[in-house]
Design a protein that fits this description.
The protein is of the alpha+beta class and 302 residues long. It has two domains: 142 residues, Major capsid protein gp5 fold; 119 residues, hypothetical protein PF0899 fold (2-Layer Sandwich). It is built from seven helices and 14 strands. Strands 1, 4, 11, 12 and 13 form a five-stranded mixed beta sheet that branches. Strands 7-14-10-8-9 form a five-stranded mixed beta sheet. The chain has a two-stranded antiparallel ribbon with strand order 2-3. Helix 1 packs parallel to helix 4. The chain starts with 11 loop residues before the first helix and ends with a strand.
Length: 302
Amino acid sequence: MSRGEVKATIEARDLTAIDNVIYEAKAEELAARSVFPQKYDVNEGAETYAYDVMTRSGAAKIIANGADDIPLVDTDMVRKHVPIYSIAIGMSYTQQDLRAARMQGTAVDTAKAATVRRAMAEKENSIAFRGEKKYDITGAFQATGIQIVPSPVTGTGGASVWSKKTAEQIIEELGDAHSLITVLPGYGSAPLKLCLPPKQFELINKKRYSDNDPRSILKILQENAWFSDIVRVPDLIGMGTMDTDCFAIIHDSNETAELIISMDVKRYEEENNFPRVKIPFEERTAGVVVRFPSAIVRCDGI
């Protein structure tokens, strides 16, 4: 390097702290990955993801001696396709930012890396739960065919919101919604996950069943073992009809729904364009593929 020439690049030691921040995301911010199983084996170069849905027909019957009119089983296979899109964002530093960090013996500012991680997680969550209308992506809890019911108006003054209901009314409402899935053929003992907005999650965590029973609603639900997990999902705020809060119950299996991630968050090499250095990040996803919508219940107006 000639005299006076300045070399300012982001070295491996500078990026160590950035990587740690980006991939150590808080669980609530990545609620989609807490709710839906993930599928990572789709090639990152794929433009679409295809899956087959099979329906069957035919039933056995009693036949007379010597009869040859044996009923036959038939299957119908339908192939469905969903597009895969890229989520991208970047961060940048000036050359002076890098020089100053090296002079002080510190890594480059990780605040921007945290912002990158939050932005990617929020977009992934939004696509998973709410979809992207511009690109014809449908969110899992807005998919065609899921069971959507109104919260019963059993609260004080004929209200549907949980803040106006007793613990018993809330538990009964959750039990009725739970049964909408467990009565389906083959789902009697299926593991179901309950998803709640933060405010309603806190309500069931703190509201006592009665003056004589100090157990919280959450404690009773856990004792009843209706749900394999109860998850806080901020994306359910305002998702219901007329922008109301809602809860959702989903069969906890990739047979029902799966988050397709063909390429997880990837950091590219820095791009030097004096006086700034830019670092792009990308993720490729098809959102959530809903294979059996009847195993999802959404209850609006809570």
